[in-house]
Amino acid sequence: MPEQLRDNYGRKLDYVRLAITDRCNLRCFYCMPSCGIKFVERDELLSYEELERLIGILGGMGVHKVRITGGEPLVRRGAMEFMERIPKISGVQSLHLTTNGTLTLPHIPRLAQLGLASVNISLDALDEDRFFKITKRKGLQAVLESVSRFADAGIPTKLNMVVMAGYNDEDISAMAALARDRDLEIRFIEEMPFNGKSHEHQLYWDHRKLRDHLFAHFPELRAKDREANSTSQMYSAPKWQGSVGIIAAFSRTFCGTCNRLRITPTGMLKTCLYDDGVLDLREILRNGSSDAQIEQAIRTAAAHKPKDGFEAELNRTSHAVSESMATIGG
Ligand code: SAM
Ligand code: SF4
Considering every ligand atom, which ligand is closest to the CA of 22? Predict the structure, then answer.
């Protein structure tokens, strides 16, 4: 039996989020500036072979849940073929995808075929104009169509909405009503400062305001028991098909049970969303290190996972939190 990867607090780390590109076909203003960011060159990205080697090493350490994210993962050539290979890697128990849903429609049968365990789709508005104002692109209909087709394909689907005053306030209750009428999980996320310096971060919709707003519109809602390692507090009601939840991503109320590792498109290991990278995996993948040496380096870095996002932020050696979420993976 492999020795389960754990940190010095005894937390089991069994979930890795791989951002396979920093590029994206949308320009959500809370994530990156409208002119984009300085995208990394192809040879700076971890290759699919390097990613597969890493997934295998992690799988051998009990990191059995893999999420593919980005940027927009489907803009990277070969992403589908890569995802098809992941479930065959030893140690992988489930594969998940986070996407903006604008490019997924033609791939849904293949995603179902490869055994995708779930999909998280980012959707911040249910109105074309507001969708455009946030993403600077068109595409709402393609996202809505994808949401329906994922359900038809039997792939559990969560919708994630970043809530921003003045941009999508009126969509909060409309999105929640979707979860009342359909078997969907809708999660409202506090905005974080990871926006590539596209604008000043000011949080209005914090988790308390969001909860009060939901209860004012849907007094029938009741808190559900929190699932282990979950970042969201979920709510539902007897006559609801689905559920709604709140992710206190900026208030960071959930760090105590965090089980996640992140790997950026350039191969930087992050043990917390708020750290600035703790191990350059690309360097050790490319300098001839053995799998055993890479495993040891990961174990040492993971052991020092900070207690919470506040400690991680304090430990940063570079600039303040302002990088684009597309370079981290969300
Ligand atoms: N492009 C894909 C998507 O949009 O789902 C995957 C990458 S995106 C960076 C992952 C998640 O990060 C999305 O749910 C997005 O809404 C969220 N995100 C990006 N910037 C954020 C910010 N500043 N605050 C909170 N969430 C953010
Ligand atoms: Fe692209 Fe996702 Fe960032 Fe929007 S949130 S710009 S879809 S990476």
Answer: 2
Q: Which atom of ligand 2 is nearest to the CA of 326?
A: 8
Assign 178 a pLDDT band (cuts: 50, 70, 90): very high
Nearest CA-CA partner of 68 in 124, 16, 122: 16
CA of residue 2 to ligand 1 center, whole Å: 33
Output Rg (C-alpha) for the chain, integer angstroms. Answer: 19
Ligand 2 centroid distance, CA of 27 (Å): 6
Which among 144, 235, 239, 251 is positioned nearest to 187, based on CA atoms? 235
CA end-to-end distance (rounded Å), the chain: 31
13-52 pLDDT, tens per residue?
Answer: 999 999 999 999 999 999 999 988 889 999 999 999 999 9
CATH 3.30.470.20 given to domain 15-327: no
Whose alpha carbon is nearest atom 12 of ligand 1? Answer: 330
pLDDT tens by residue, 134-148: 999 999 999 999 999
Distance (Å, whole) CA 31 – CA 162: 10
Strands 118-122 and 157-163: parallel
Neighbouring residues of 309: CB distance < 8 A, sequence distance ≥ 6: 252, 255, 272, 273, 274
For ligand 2, the distance from its centroid to the CA atom of residue 325, given in whole angstroms, is 8
Annotated domain spans of the chain: 15-327
Q: Which residues contact 215 (CB under 8 A, 6 or more apart)?
A: 221
Is the C-beta atom of 103 inside 6 A of ligand 2? Answer: no
Is residue 161 lining ligand 2, measured as CB closer than 6 Å? no
Is residue 101 within 8 Å of residue 120, measured between CB atoms? no
Distance 100 CA to ligand 2 centre (A): 7
CA–CA dist 64, 90 (Å, integer): 9
pLDDT in tens, 81-113: 999 999 999 999 999 999 999 999 999 999 999
